[in-house]
Structure formats: C-alpha cells, structure tokens
Amino acid sequence: MKTHARVVVIGGGVVGCSVLYHLAKAGWTDALLIERSELTSGSSWHAAGGFHTLNGDPNVAKLQAYTVSLYREIEALSGQSCGLHLTGGVMMAGDP
After folding, report:
1. Terminus-to-terminus CA distance in the chain, angstroms?
2. Percent of the chain scored above 70 by pLDDT?
C-alpha cells in the first residue's frame, strides 16, 4: 500500500464518496478514501437518496437540482441504476 497521497478522504458516506467522485472527475489520480467498514455503512445508509426537489431558497434549489443531475450522470457513466425515483411534491403556504 502507498504511504503518501495527494488527498485522503476519511469516511465513505454520501459526502466522502461525493468528494472523491468530484476529485476524480476533476482529474485527481492520487486520492484515497478510508472507511472503517464498508461504503455507506454509517449514517448514510438510512439517508441515501433522501433529498427534496423543492426549496424556497434559490441556492439550495440549485444544489438540489445538481444532485438530481448527478444521480443521472452516475447512472449513465456506470450503467447501474441508483434507484432514483422522482415523484414530485407540493409546498403548502404556512400563512395566509
């Protein structure tokens, strides 16, 4: 095993995997992910795919739209389904 890496990502949850994916996509080849058990075996297992597609904050809405497109990109690149099912949603007014 190598003793040095340009970057070491600690934790193979949804954030760690995303960081490593984006680094690799940007051309980083000397990167390492360390996980104590197996990928997404920590708190990510019950939250994977648990994101909303509606938000009143424009910046959060852009991030959510990027997440949806990222899942589609990963499916297209890998040939594997992420199991993403967009079902829609409704925002209700909180006051008159």
Report:
1. 62
2. 88
The whole-number pLDDT of residue 23 equals 96
Nearest-CA neighbor of 82 among 12, 14, 8, 11?
Answer: 14
Look at residue 34 and give its three-state secondary structure: strand
Q: How far apart are CA 63 and CA 18, in angstroms?
A: 13
How far does CA 16 lie from the centroid of its chain?
8
- Please state the pTM of the whole predicted model: 0.71
Q: Which residue has the higher pLDDT, 48 or 40?
A: 40
Number of helices (H) and strands (E) in the chain: give both, helices first: 2, 2
